[in-house]
Backbone:
């Protein structure tokens, strides 16, 4: 049995609490990322799922945020899932990512569309935890349109069905799904729909059980979640009080038996 700690966090392109992207200096972004690295050092997660993280974007200082964060937080493994790419003077490259203390055995990135900016999607990875493969989906859904979110959820579920047929015999547990869902679990929207679909196969639990994540200074909405299958035993979860982004991170612990 091994205790596993997972953190999901939308880091808002390292702009901190600045509401306008592009008005934060590169120096300030590096300081923000080092503050996030310090938080990771305090919380000591095994796996970190990040949303809105930049590989090399003009509006985010033109440097690799994941590599900078990895170096300052000491994680040996990392993988990017880029959903947005734009070349030229106003270059962009960003999406979702993982940091991990465990080897990453396989990865796949799915963008929900072909837009060069504002596109959402997910990155999938299999983590080798003592010889057991833990599959995790790191997801970011559309921020303003329920119709878009439901359509994106359909893409995710179709992909999951195919992936399970090919890989489920190798997995120790069914896939964990985490990220920024941009809608609460209490409304008839994508979060509740995903929980209903997953429960048709396994008795998934939605974490955290209480608290709010957005906006971080005075949070009113719970938008960031981790879906755990029942094979993840003795789960504990919390919303972490932090002011390093417009979202607060969510931390989940569980036993992998």
Residues:
């Amino acid at each position: 049995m091994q205790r596993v700690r997972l953190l999901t966090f939308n880091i808002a392109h390292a702009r901190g609490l600045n509401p306008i992207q592009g008005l934060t200096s590169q120096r300030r972004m590096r300081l923000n990322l080092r503050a996030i690295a310090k938080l990771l050092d305090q919380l000591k997660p095994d796996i970190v799922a990040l949303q809105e993280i930049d590989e090399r974007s003009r509006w985010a200082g033109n440097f690799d945020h994941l590599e900078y964060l990895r170096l300052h937080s000491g994680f040996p493994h990392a993988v990017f899932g880029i959903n947005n790419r734009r070349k030229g003077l106003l270059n962009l490259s960003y999406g979702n990512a993982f940091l991990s203390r465990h080897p990453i055995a396989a990865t796949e990135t799915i963008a929900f569309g072909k837009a060069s900016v504002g596109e959402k999607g997910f990155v999938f990875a299999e983590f080798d935890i003592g010889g057991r493969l833990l599959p995790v989906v790191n997801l970011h859904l559309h921020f303003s349109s329920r119709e878009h979110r439901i359509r994106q959820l359909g893409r995710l579920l179709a992909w999951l069905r195919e992936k399970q047929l090919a890989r489920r015999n190798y997995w120790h547990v069914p896939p964990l799904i985490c990220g920024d869902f941009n809608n609460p679990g209490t409304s008839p929207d994508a979060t509740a729909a995903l929980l209903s679909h997953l429960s048709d196969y396994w008795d998934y639990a939605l974490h955290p059980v209480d608290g709010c994540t957005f906006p971080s200074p005075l949070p009113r909405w719970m938008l960031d979640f981790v879906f755990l299958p029942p094979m993840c035993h003795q789960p504990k979860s919390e919303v972490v009080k932090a002011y390093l982004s417009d979202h607060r991170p969510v931390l989940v612990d569980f036993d992998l038996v």
